[in-house]
Structure formats: C-alpha cells, structure tokens
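STRUCTURE:
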C-alpha cells in the first residue's frame, strides 16, 4: 500500500548476495545488502531517508559489494560528474547516507558503479554503448563538485535509459 506522493522506483526478484547503491537528488546515498531490503509488511520498508524536496534517483543492483578498485560516478543537473572510490560509501541498513556530490542549487540526476574492467560507460540516445576510457580526470574526493561530463554524454544525464 503506497501513501500519497509515493511511487515505485524499482521492482526486482530477490536473490542472494546482491548489494544496492541508493542515491537521492539531494546528493546523499548509501549501500545496502539485499537481506536488509526485504520487507514483511504490505507498506514496505523505507531504506533511504530523504531531505525535504528530495527524491530517490537511483537504486542500482550490484552482483556483489564493490571491490577496492571500484568507483561511484555521480552526475548533477548542471552537467558535472564526480567519480570517487566506492569504499567511501558506507554499507548501512537504512538512513540518509553520506554526501556523494555537492552541487549548490543543482540536483544529482544519476549514479553508477565504475569498474577498471568496464570503464566509464553509458548508453546514448540511439541505444549504443559509449565509453570514456580515460575517466581518471573525473576522480576526486567524495563530496566535491566534479567536472563537466565527457563529450557525447547523454543530455538526459543518465548512464542507462
């Protein structure tokens, strides 16, 4: 049973061992294990505490917890991207999380996990997989402002449609 102003973000079949990366438009986020996501009530379970006016922008399922070389990429509505180590995002059962990216009046639009093997990838408006092999210039400290998105990044500012 959903309350007023509540919408379904994603529906998925439970499977053992996954981790979810959750992020809000206010720039906060956290990681949560799948065992902590499952609710036993009709009303569900709140995992991410949102600031006033913020909404959830991402609920990415990961096959396992990110490794030490994995990074989180965050994109804001003012077309700034910041990539920081995934180890800086805490594994929690619920809460507000930590600040991913500061953006002044802009909001976080999307987040993704970046791995050394896959690199920084996104899907363009024609459905083609694009990548930026030299993604190191966007690496910074968690909570920073970031730099302009790479050339060819979608106008929707989403890694995946």
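SEQUENCE:
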């Amino acid at each position: 049973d959903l309350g007023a102003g509540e919408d379904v973000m994603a529906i998925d079949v439970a499977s053992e061992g996954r981790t979810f990366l959750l992020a809000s438009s206010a720039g906060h986020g956290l990681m949560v294990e799948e065992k902590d996501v499952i609710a036993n009530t009709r009303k569900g379970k709140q995992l991410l505490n949102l600031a006033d006016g913020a909404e959830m922008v991402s609920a990415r399922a990961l096959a396992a917890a990110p490794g030490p070389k994995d990074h989180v990429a965050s994109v804001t509505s003012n077309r700034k991207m910041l990539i920081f180590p995934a180890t800086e995002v805490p594994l929690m059962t619920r809460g507000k999380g930590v600040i991913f990216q500061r953006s002044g009046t802009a909001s976080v639009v999307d987040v993704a996990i970046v791995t050394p093997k896959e690199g920084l990838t996104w899907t363009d408006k024609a459905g083609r997989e694009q990548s930026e092999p030299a993604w190191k210039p966007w690496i910074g400290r968690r909570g920073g402002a970031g730099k302009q998105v790479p050339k060819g990044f979608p106008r929707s500012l989403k890694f995946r449609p």
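REMARK: The mean pLDDT is 85.
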